[in-house]
Amino acid sequence: MNPREVLRNYFGYDSFREHQKEIIDQLIGGQDVFALMPTGSGKSICYQIPAVILPGVCVVVSPLIALMQDQVDAVRELGIRASFLNSSLDYREASLVERKVIDGELDLLYVAPERLVTPGFIDLLKKTSICLFAIDEAHCVSQWGHDFRPEYLELTILAEMFPGVPRVALTATADAVTRREIIEKLRLQTARQFISSFDRPNIEYKVELKDHERNQLIDFIESYHSGDAGIVYCMTRKRVEEIAAFLEENGIPALPYHAGMDAPVRVENQKRFLREDGLVMVATIAFGMGIDKPDVRFVAHLNLPKTLEAYYQETGRAGRDGEPADAWMLYSLSDVVMLRRMIDNSPGDEQHKYVQHGKMEAMLGYCETTQCRRQVLLGYFGEAYGGQCDKCDTCQGKVETYDGTHAARQALSCIYRTGQMFGVAHLVDVLMGKDTEKIRRNGHDAVTTFGIGKDLSEAQWKSVFRQLIAAGMVTAQVGARGGLSLSPQCRSLLRGEDSFLLRRDAVSVKAKPVKEKTGG
Fold it and tell me: Element (H or E) spanning 375, and its range?
């Protein structure tokens, strides 16, 4: 069969989506591929169809053991011969799978990266015919990515030991730095690259400052998504349990999901969410990777995600059927404090922490922008979006703004007068005229911008700088921790040719009574 026949006979589709056919042709032709395709765009078909057509087994590297059974069940229902090897199998079960691999009875074999690089598994691969290696969630190889898995670094062994076998690395979220590292670490310098649009036109983006979190969540669900399936992300396991119970008490069917739960309960909750209509899954970020439920009508974040990559990937679980869906988020200063503490206490080196701080600031800038959110989100991934999307709260005029031209020019001037090499905290100190040792040492108490910004608070100035970064007026310098420099885009604003709107923090929520948990 040719690819189009496999697409129709196995998957029931009459036509390919963007890049699918080209990727499949490359792999069938024995060429390596790097594919960046958004969640819900059909990445898996790109290696499943070659697995059906080509002789030998396609080995799929998947980072989550908990989801392999679901992935295998899904392709088996399509008539594709598939299995997995992981620690959930006993010796007899694993031996049966290995015998099928050697005898050529499988099209797809799913395996975790930790197992793939073991001597025993490499010996197994040498005894069989391999048609393709598919490295799913390839951003896990990058220490600058949002979901770094050090065991992915060992996957270079595939290029060394199986040089004639084509490899495809697939991910839904990777900025330019992460893409370069994926290609370098997986030795895909000669691979054909396919970059799909990041735009999810059916998703509407909304962001609010956190005020009465539970009131806001209930109001959002009842106003826009009564009876719909959705996902609510929380930062901690404790909050997951509390919010799931709270929704249940208020008549919204909800289930908790986090890594600390008993495995059988967690698996059963996941199966119920996939199988039943109108359920809300309340989860940590442990939930979602590999989940294929097309009719999720909303994804809600009750805390600030760590990065825009993570946010994009998680919101992409809404509206995979192409129908309208919402990405709704609450954030607060306490989220920022918690994320900063997590970054500072992480085991990474200073350069790694610097990059992670920059990613968090970009996430915060997205929240505070007065621009079209779709422009900011796509711009982060290097994709231009012209005009207004009319499907975000800023385009719809739901974000209150004010003329911040004067404050923006003061901030830009301060960056310039201090040499374009200092971070936000120091720049705010200069604008507010603070007497610090660092200011005196650098002579910044003598620059013309010293003390000119006393009419704004420290928090307000930090918001100004974040919004300038989000608008592309200012860039953070790599290598100088937190250092800001001016971008060419700010010239017209500094010359007095343009104005600049700033977002005024406000919360719009109907404060109505909701049931609270009682007792211990």
Answer: helix 373-380
